[in-house]
Amino acid sequence: MAQQSKNAAIIIIGNEILSGKVQDANSPYLSGELRALGVDVQRISVIPDEIDTIGEEIAACRKKYHLVFTSGGVGPTHDDVTMEGIARGVGKPLTHHPILDQLLRTVYGGDLNPAQLKLADVPEGLELLHAEGLRVPVLRFENIYIFPGIPSLLVRKFEAIKERFRETPFHLRKIFLTGDEALVAEDLNKVLRLFPRLLLGSYPILHHPEYKVILTLESKDKAYLERATQSLLLFLPKELVLRLE
Amino acid sequence: MAQQSKNAAIIIIGNEILSGKVQDANSPYLSGELRALGVDVQRISVIPDEIDTIGEEIAACRKKYHLVFTSGGVGPTHDDVTMEGIARGVGKPLTHHPILDQLLRTVYGGDLNPAQLKLADVPEGLELLHAEGLRVPVLRFENIYIFPGIPSLLVRKFEAIKERFRETPFHLRKIFLTGDEALVAEDLNKVLRLFPRLLLGSYPILHHPEYKVILTLESKDKAYLERATQSLLLFLPKELVLRLE
Predict the structure, then answer these.
(1) A27–B46 CB contact, under 8 Å
(2) Where is the MoaB/Mog domain (chains A, B) (predicted)?
């Protein structure tokens, strides 16, 4: 049974997030959506609007992960440098994209000023992913999917193309415990020795009236997950197990 | 006038964030608090509970940034590997810390089981930062401040020591515009040529009844910020400026 998933990195570009002015809604959205699609998000990076920093992050992530998603920095002003950063990271020049230029003329309804023209300057080799319901396509360079920072636009674009990312899903079980996680640490080690491919998390919850810990058990192999769950339930002290979900 | 600030990186450690099960509250809290203290957060990384990955992130960030804050992975179970990751990243062995051992005996009220004993295994050279109101001190290794992942505990610990991070504050002005940012992009470039040290952001806002863009102007030098703001107001088309805050 293949456990191997596609993995992904999410790169959030924007000084406004780092300075605490705006709370990032895009990485929680993307990580939840990608997980539901069966994709394993391995990194989220929030970085400033700086060409060099974006270039370095892109260069590192495009080789290390199957999929890379960027958000932010694609508008017309001085602080929108994502395209230049990606171009640097992939070692390509920026070129004016004629189809994107045409699309922008339709959107803006006429001639483009220099700031609007800049929106069609993209790394050489960039592709346009057209999809139903999108006036402006999603921009892709190889395994890098480039999204705007405005959450409602990102959601609309991601929704339009997300089926292409679907993998075998993760299956999840949760066990709720009424005692401290230090009391079950050795039981968790035991089940991991028997089921080394189990994805097992232990999360203390403060001040909940019913439980103190949530254990999460995950696998892409449902039968393996069920065997591991039953095995763990045998190891855990019965009086600590509140319920299984 | 010194523009130079202390900068910082925030490293959030936890599979539960990457898989979208839990929304990270710690990086928004820390980035807002650090900004208010005058610290310039330059990176937020969310990474999995993996010793190697944590080690690499720590090794890169401790040299590149003045301050590094970690959150998560400091509990007693198999997935709590932050201490091993930091030890790897700073090139020190893990050692059992006798004072931390004593503190844990007080907290747990007696003997420690193997999982609890592990909580006192820390990188050699780690310091304890005691502060008023803290039962368990903040753990520090050189410029790395190690926080628990549970938001209420992180807040309590950060509050107790935050004054040590205070710098010259950032001053902020906002200009609200009623037109598209492409219309003012050249005005923003102009003010940046005159005030190259100005921190200037331009953020489109969709579907707001009153404005379409918020410009943010920042500096640690209040007089410089005021001059830059007045200069920008002269460049901007008057009919687009809704208000200044």
Answers:
(1) yes
(2) 9-168
